[in-house]
Amino acid sequence: MTASDVAAPPAPHPVTDRVREALAISLRGCDELLPEADWLKKLARSEATGTPLRIKLGLDPTAPDIHFGHTVVLNKMRQLQDLGHQVIFLIGDFTTLIGDPSGRNTTRPPLTAEQIKANAETYYTQAAKVLDPARTEIRYNSEWCDPLGARGMIQLSARYTVARMMERNDFHQRFTAGTSISLHEFLYPLLQGYDSVALKSDLELGGTDQKFNLLMGRHLQVEYGQEPQCALTMPLLEGLDGVEKMSKSKNNYIGITEDANSMFSKVLSISDTLMWRWYVLLSFRSEAEIAALKAEVEAGRNPKDAKVMLARELVTRFHSAAAADAAEADFNNRARGGIPDEIPEVTLSGAPLGIGALLKSAGLAPSTSEANRLLDQGGVRIDGAVVSDRGLKVEAGTVVVQVGKRKFARVTLTA
Q1: Chain segment 89-130, per-residue pLDDT in tens
Q2: Which fold has domain 9-234?
Q3: Are strands 32-34 and 397-403 parallel, antiparallel or unpaired?
Q4: Topology of 345-414 in CATH?
Q5: What pTM was computed for the model?
Q6: CA-to-CA distance for 153 and 147, rounded, in angstroms?
Q7: What reaction does this catalyse (predicted)?
Q8: Is 211 annotated as a binding residue?
Q9: N or C: which terminus of the chain carries fewer CB neighbours within 10 A?
Q10: Where exactly are the structural domains of the chain?
């Protein structure tokens, strides 16, 4: 055989300006893109052949509601979707039965099939507020995990070693600390990786805590003779406090189904520093637009202007432009000391009723002790007047009670 008889490797596809732009969009705000060179080749091939890439995001329906922190990855999916690629919204109804051990120092308690079904029913409806439903493929990993059976599970487990599995930080830390690790937890990354095989994905997205699982998909695709996917991790979004990651358990979150007024005012409550982080991860404005806006603020423009623009964009996305207009007007009215047009109506009995008990019963404070703390801080108003007397007894009648800047209730108190 001569050198001329050996087939030459296929010429690489050209990296055009459109491909470079697609790479820049992929990298915006991301933590890691592994391997970046492979993703560039995939983008170039897609551009040259007109074949969309398959981009996968898996979410386990462990809770029924999605907050802004979840949308960081969804936003990236939408950006890639707008480039013409096929996005796959994968609901991990099978893997949720195991429980993702990522970032855990204890075994995650599994949900029941009924809980998983109830949560999954709301997941995509909420995600569709970010993704384009017409261009989104919805899949459930029970489609291929259930048919695996015991034989298939054993064959899949043979594709990875215990030593490699123990390199994972959370498993290594728990083993070193003598904390129990259940055998079924090893199955979670294997099955998430097998999802990539079943879907023939080109790219999988996830939070930074998902890196091990994403690379597992890449490894298993090679094992099954497929071109390996790339892995793109997005940072975890800081919550309203600007310190901890956004979490319902830490009460520093904004749910995407919250009412427009609450959503708007919560965005306005974040710090001026955190605002720019949110712009990069949550806004659909271009990086050039954000940079220009930041330069204006640094040159003396009121940062509140930029924060209002961000709040309006997010409220419009999850509600409507009209709702954003109304929410801004409501916020400005309350900033002037006004009362919102729509506030909860509460009817209580037992007049005269102690102010602490009233705040708790009206849902304005979680406990009497917290109510007393709010009173001491001057955070309670009745009909616009500050109340600081813990011993106040509220007589029968109707009053507007305000706690802080955002909580209101029209309370009708009867004997």
Answers
A1: 998 888 887 766 555 545 556 677 788 777 877 888 888 889
A2: Rossmann fold (3.40.50)
A3: unpaired
A4: 3.10.290
A5: 0.73
A6: 10
A7: tRNA(Tyr) + L-tyrosine + ATP = L-tyrosyl-tRNA(Tyr) + AMP + diphosphate + H(+)
A8: no
A9: N
A10: 9-234, 260-335, 345-414
